[in-house]
Amino acid sequence: MAALPPLNALRAFEAAARRGSFAAAAGELNVTPAAIGQQVRQLEALIGSALFEREGRTLRLTERGGAALDRLSRAFELMGEASAAMRESKRAARIILALPFDMASLWLAPRLAARSSAPGLEIITRDPLTALDEGADLAIIRSADTPTGQDSQLLLRETLSPLAAPALARQIRTPADLETLPLIADTSIPLGWTEWLARRGAYGIAVQPAFITDGTGPAMALAEAGAGLVLGRKLLVASAVNEGRLVSVFADGDMPDGENYWLAFARGRRRSDAVNLFAAWFRAEIAGAVDAADEL
C-alpha cells in the first residue's frame, strides 16, 4: 500500500473544498484559517500539484483537486460509518439487566464474581418492567402471573422455608413454639407466618413479628444474628444454609412463595448475541441453583 499523506492535511483539503473557503473549513474543524491553509499547502507540496486556484478569498478547485474531492469525501464518510459501527459494537457488548435488589445482591453478585468472562453489565434494581420500557435488555421479574406485554420465560417457582440461626433452631420442637419465639417478617414476600401456620393446620397459634423488614437482605441479617426466625426464599438463602449460618427449622416446612421468577425481554426489540448468551448463562445458573436448593 502506498504511503498516505497526513490525515490532517487530507481532512483540511476536503473540508475547504467542500465548504468553499479556508474560514468555513476552519470553523468546521475547530482550527484557524491559517492552519487550514498550511495543511493544504503541505498536501500540495507532497503531491507536487496545486489543488486550488486562488482568486482573492475565493477558492476554485483545479481539475486534480476536483477529482480528489469526491473520493476523499466518500472516504471520510466511510471512516465515520466505521467509527460509529465500532461504538455501536461496544454498546452492544454492554448488557442492561433489571432485577430485584435482593436477587442482585444475594444470588447474582457471587456468581458474576466467579464467572471467568462476562460482557459489560449494568445492573438496575428499580422496577424491572419499567426498566424494560426504558431500555433494559432483559429483566428478572417476580410475579404470580406471566408478565404482560413482554416476552417472558418461567425460570422457577419459588419456595419459602422457615429458617433460624443454629442456636435458636435448637429451641424449636413444634409450630406452637413460634408463639413464644421472636419472628421476622419480610414485607417483600407476599406470604407470612400466619399463612405458613395455616398451611400446616396449626390454627389458634397467635404470632406477632418482633422485627419487620422490607427486604430479604435485612431479614436474613437479623436471622443470622440470632434475632429471630425468618421465612426465606430458598433460592436466596441457599448460601447461608450451605455455610451453616442458617438452618431449616422443620424438615417438611417448605411452602410455595406465591410468586415465580420470570426472565423477560422487551417485546419486539432485537436481542444482541451478547444478550442471548448472557440469558442462556443465567438460565443455566438458575437451573443449577434449583437443583442445589432441592437438596437443602
Automatic annotation (TrEMBL):
A Pfam entry, by short name: LysR_substrate
PROSITE patterns: HTH_LYSR (PS50931)
Keywords, alphabetical: DNA-binding, Transcription, Transcription regulation
A GO molecular-function descriptor: DNA-binding transcription factor activity
BP-aspect Gene Ontology terms: DNA-templated transcription
Gene3D superfamilies per the UniProt record, alphabetical: Periplasmic binding protein-like II (3.40.190.10), Winged helix-like DNA-binding domain superfamily/Winged helix DNA-binding domain (1.10.10.10)
Superkingdom in the source lineage: Bacteria
Keyword DNA-binding: yes
Similarity field: Belongs to the LysR transcriptional regulatory family.
Entry-linked PANTHER family: HTH-TYPE TRANSCRIPTIONAL REGULATOR (PTHR30537), TRANSCRIPTIONAL REGULATOR-RELATED (PTHR30537:SF79)
Protein name: LysR family transcriptional regulator
Organism this protein belongs to: Glycocaulis alkaliphilus
